[in-house]
Design brief:
This protein is of the alpha/beta class. 31% of the residues lie in helices and 24% in strands. Helix 12 runs parallel beside helix 13 (328-339). The longest helix has 18 residues, at 136-153. The protein binds ligand G2I.
Length: 442
């Protein structure tokens, strides 16, 4: 059996999937005691063990820098184009779209197995001149046309879109005065409805800063809007909390309450632009731990790779220094992510000389599922453990004997006589973060 065949005719596919499910089902009765995951050694892998992503902002202009791409490729599972999908970049003239820079970031992410957050469709800042010159119904129509044009281009490819960015004012908690706002209060809900129609597969987020502190007027106003949208069926799936922390806008002790309260409205919450002045390790760990305590906090994105890549580089607010070396904050975040893995600490099993390695590679993709190839080296009698980030599930395997434990969401695989290259089909249920794998000799 091959993964390629799985994409074949409906009859063939059904046969293979059913066969594989039967093979997996035999594991249900014999699945053993849940084992804790080994500590992961990258941010993305550690977050994936908790069913979350760990992302970074990426600039197209830096994709030629090998230090930058090595760190980004290794550590992160989610990518946000820092500027390339903004209004001025994507629609520089009315009705004339430019997806070159956005595609460069998207393609790099896709080629490296990462998902993409789309940022951002409607923002008061970064507007091209033609848009700033419009008002009233002409502006409203241009806003909808922009959403339609950009979302059509990236249809089916984006994990979540920041549909509306920073629409509330600091301090008072009222709406920010902008050209969009002057078209009427209902511009935000119209944007979300248009976005849902344009790409039903993307999660639709409202994204803002200074909404970390639960008691602030701005947080309360955004919360009231999201609650209202949920009660009236306006399609909103997530709230992005930027988390740009400075001495003037410090990490608040009630951040976890904010995450929990938004999540209780039935939306995902995501930390979307994290950076902290001076990068204090304890504060970074606290922010990440807050996310880990809220099941609907689905991921954390830091706003850049190295300090020198930051929009406020003088604050050295990120996890890697200008040389690309890991800072103490990196270790604090990795430890916080690894500490979240449930279950007892793994017993230190000595790995035999030349212990085996399982390597994943991208296979075919469908809207609701994707294939991964697995190649094992270093042993011909191996046991591979694959931990799948919830709510994704393995629904089929080929060229391997597999047991699926639904309690732990872990598959254990052994050779079935077809060699050391095999594969799985994963139904992602919205979480396209790849599983983590480990290998040991049988
Ligand atoms: O301002 C920080 C962030 C606040 N939330 C929304 C984010 O989209 C925003 O990101 C920043 C980028 O990090 C900056 O890189 O947004 C700025 C404004 O769009 C970005 O700055 C722009 C400069 O304004 C341009 O002059 C410059 O050409 O960056 C461009 C590329 O370096």
């Amino acid at each position: 059996m091959t993964g390629r065949l799985l994409a074949g005719s409906r009859v063939v596919r059904r046969t293979l999937v059913l066969g594989a499910v039967a093979a997996l089902a035999t594991g249900l009765a014999v699945a053993g005691t849940p084992r804790a995951n080994a500590a992961a050694d990258t941010l993305g892998a550690a977050a994936a063990q908790t069913g979350r992503y760990f992302g970074t902002a990426i600039s197209a202009s830096k994709l030629g820098d090998p230090v930058y791409t090595a760190i980004a490729g290794r550590e992160f599972t989610m990518v946000t184009p820092e500027n390339e999908m903004k209004l001025d970049a994507t629609e520089p003239r009315q009705g004339v779209f430019n997806f070159g820079p956005g595609d460069r970031v998207y393609d790099w992410a896709a080629q490296n197995g990462k998902q993409v957050r789309g940022h951002t469709l409607l923002w008061h800042s970064g507007q091209p001149q033609w848009l700033q010159n419009l008002s009233g119904s002409a502006l409203r129509q241009a806003m909808i046309d922009h959403i339609d044009g950009v979302m059509a281009h990236y249809k089916g490819k984006i994990y979540a879109w920041d549909v509306v960015n920073e629409a509330f004012a600091d301090g008072t908690g009222g709406r920010r005065n902008s050209n969009f706002q002057r078209t009427g209060d209902d511009w935000i809900e119209h944007a979300f409805r248009a976005a849902r129609a344009a790409d039903p597969a993307a999660k639709l987020c409202y994204n803002d800063y200074n909404i970390e502190n639960w008691t602030s007027a701005k947080t309360q106003s955004v919360y009231t809007m999201v609650k209202d949208f949920r009660s009236r069926g306006v399609p909103i799936d997530c709230v992005g909390i930027q988390a740009h922390f400075t001495s003037g806008n410090p990490y608040p002790g009630d951040f976890r309450t904010t995450l929990r309260n938004f999540a209780a409205l039935g939306v995902d919450v995501q930390i979307t632009e994290l950076d902290i002045q001076g990068a204090p390790p304890a504060t970074y760990a606290d922010v990440v731990t807050d996310c880990l305590t809220v099941p609907r906090c689905t991921g954390v994105t830091v706003w850049g790779v190295r300090d020198t890549d930051s929009w406020r580089s003088g604050d050295t607010p990120l996890l890697f220094d200008g040389d690309g070396d890991k800072k103490p904050a990196y270790t604090a975040v990795l430890d916080a992510l690894n500490a979240a893995v449930p279950g007892p600490s793994p017993s230190p099993t000595p790995s035999p000389a030349g212990s085996c390695t399982a390597t994943l590679s991208a296979g075919a993709k469908w809207p609701d599922r994707y294939n991964l190839g697995v190649t094992v080296t270093g042993s011909d009698d191996w046991i591979v453990t694959m931990t799948v980030p919830r709510p994704a599930k393995i629904i089929a395997t080929w060229n391997v004997s597999a047991r699926w434990n639904p309690t732990t969401n872990v598959m254990t695989a052994r050779p079935d006589g077809h060699g050391d290259s095999w594969g799985v089909t994963i139904k992602h249920h919205g979480n396209r973060t790849w599983p983590t794998v480990s290998c040991r000799h049988a």
